[in-house]
Design brief:
- This protein has two helices and no strands.
- With about 50 residues, it is an all-alpha fold.
- The longest helix is centred in the middle third of the chain and has 17 residues.
- The protein is elongated and about 45 Å long.
- It starts with 14 loop residues before the first helix and ends with a helix.
Length: about 50
């Protein structure tokens, strides 16, 4: 799942509405992303282990 920072938006009534809008934005963004390849996942794991 894509995590977006919660930044106040102009014209948003409350935190619940803002959260709903950000969730909708995340779904749109996620629909345009390709899944990571095994090679990309291994690279991330290697970076995590080396830090």
């Amino acid at each position: 799942m894509v995590r977006l920072p919660l930044v106040p938006c102009d014209g948003v009534a409350d935190a619940d509405e803002e959260t709903a809008l950000l969730a909708a934005d995340a779904r749109v963004l996620e629909s345009h992303l390709e899944p990571l390849t095994d090679q990309q996942l291994m690279g991330i794991c290697n970076l995590q282990q080396s830090s």
